[in-house]
Amino acid sequence: MAADAERRNTDAASGAASGRELSPRSLAVVMNVPTILILALVLAYPIYYAGFLSFHQVGPGQLRSGVFPFVGLLNYERVLTDPLFQKALLNTFTFSAIVVVAEIVLAVAIALLINQQGIWTSRVTRILMLVPYAVPPIANGLVWSFMYSYQFGFLNRILFTLGVITEPINWAGNPDTALFAITVPYVWRTLPFAILLVHAALQGINKELHEAAAVDGANAWRRFWHITLPLLTPIIVVILVLRTSFAFAVFEEILAITQGGPGDATWVAAWYSYRKSFAPPFDIGLGSASAYLLAMLVGILALVYVRMIYRRVE
Amino acid sequence: MLKPSPIAQILLHFANVLVIAFFLLPIVAVTIGSLQSEKMLQADTQAILPAEWTFDNFLVILSGGEQRGKIFEQVTYLPDNVKSFHRAFANSVIVATSVTILTLVFGSLSAYTVARLRFGWTIWLMNLNVMARFVPIIVLMIPLYVTFRNFGMLNSLSGVIVALTGFLLPYAILMLAPYFATIPRELEDAARIDGCTHFSAFWRITLPLSAPGLASCGAIMFIISWHELLIPLILNSRAEFMTLPVVIASLVGDVHVFFNLMMAICLLAMLPSVILVLLLQRFVVQGLQVGGVKG
């Protein structure tokens, strides 16, 4: 009772000093005001406005006059019937599929490698593998355009020196290989993130399971296949969804290495929206429609992801 | 603990060497490329190492084109963007630092309400943040360009800072909320018994105890802002507001800029974030793992 009274007193004292204390309900609102304002301004409104623009004709003339004529679904019709957009979409799917499969396989393999105890080089890998994460995507793209250069490229120099080739290889300049050439720098830059997620999941696996299986005579491969891999499945699905949705929006490496070329060999969805909106003919309505289609594709993946989190919490 | 056999150990060392070689190959390429002249790159197109090494590429960039060194003596054309490297570097520092501070402040306030004051709508806000993380930046850029154009906010650093803060805030909240949730609630209750208001319990107890979580989140916010290309590329067209990624992008397709100069700029642009990641590796790893999984 005495403590209660004392608490009421100090509450009153601090209340007097700092004004009336807010209820948790109001405090939650006040603390979220800046976030809600910023998200409304920079996320919610633009997403709504992109939808608005995609139903209107918006070009340089309209931007100057400030009047955007309503055109209904015309922009969507033009995008969906544009062979270049279809090509860009197909390229985006091909690119994402290669990138995500390669990343998952490599991430599991490298995470197992850096998880090895008593191998000192694994500790070195654990530190150095973070370097790609720190490289700006656009710089990564330019570095690889030097690696891939037909005449002066670093990769060809290595292969010449090793005696593997006698003629230079045109890695990114050949329409048949250009899209594959872009996947390598992209995987290089984003692999550390995937490795870290798998590594975190690996550390959560009970070591006794492995030891028991080893005692029962299971070799390393069977232990991986029957114990580790099933336990890694949830994180692999997370990586699958996260990485696919980000790979759908690949941009910097395309800009730096091929600019969509040669021809239309490496046009991807984000590049299509960017070029249509911010290069002649500056067709922002068309660009918005194509960007919205990309957002819808990614949105489906995002819903899947949120669903998965719910399941994990339950 | 299962100890690998001697042969397995050798194979594992070998695998590590391969992985390290893959991760460092581009870094080796950018370093060798930046330390030689255009002439050397063209003289022998098959050699890995140049016959002559030079620091002139860095000299010409860091002096803003004032000191040409030997290899640029004859060169009459140097892109303006190369000359304004200092400006771009300063802009990048201003943008990345401001965005880091803003996302940490706003993100902490929100993440705390999500972690501790669990109402129906704060949980909804968290789900919206998860969804927001997926929005491709190009989708935002087109309407932001039109909006900023209407309000005369194009060509300013503050426009870029606002846009980038909005884009990164959901990610910051996703990283911070799980961290706040791990701080024992009893510590706050004790402070409240001693007369703290709810907010000052957060401010004086939970926030300082979350310093490692804030460091993780801050490091990642700084790195992503340092890397961001599309937002400043589309919102700013004038040289004085360009950030480093925009300057790098502007050299793409400039036939007068050769690989050696490009590699030198790339190396200078990646150095700060590489050093940051290696210095704060523990925090970066933790932040990426928490933000990636528990979101």
Helix count of chain A equals 15
Order of helices and strands of chain A: HHHHHHHHHHHHHHH
Strand content of chain A: under 5%
CATH top-level class of chain A:
Mainly Alpha
Query: What is the CATH architecture term of the largest domain in chain B?
Result: Orthogonal Bundle
Element-by-element helix/strand order of chain B: HHHHHHHHHHHHHHH
Q: Strand tally of chain B, please?
A: 0
Strand tally of chain A is 0
How far is the first residue's CA from the last residue's CA of chain B? 33 Å
What share of the residues of chain A lie within helices?
over 70%
N→C terminal distance of chain A? 41 Å
Low-confidence parts of chain B:
none
Word description of this protein:
The complex is a heterodimer of chains A (314) and B (295). With 314 residues, chain A is mainly alpha-helical. Helices cover 75% and strands 0% of the residues of chain A. In chain A, helix 4 (74-81) packs across helix 15 (284-313), helix 8 (137-148) packs across helix 10 (178-203) and helix 14 packs antiparallel against helix 15 (284-313). Chain A is globular, with a radius of gyration of 27 Å. With 295 residues, chain B is mainly α. Chain B has 15 helices and no strands. Chain B has helices at residues 6-34, 38-43, 56-62, 80-83, 85-115, 120-132, 137-150, 157-182, 185-193, 198-209, 211-227, 230-235, 244-251, 259-279, 281-293. In chain B, helix 8 packs antiparallel against helix 11 (211-227) and helix 13 packs antiparallel against helix 14. At the A-B interface, helix 1, helix 2, helix 6, helix 7 and helix 8 of A face helix 1, helix 5, helix 6, helix 7 and helix 8 of B.
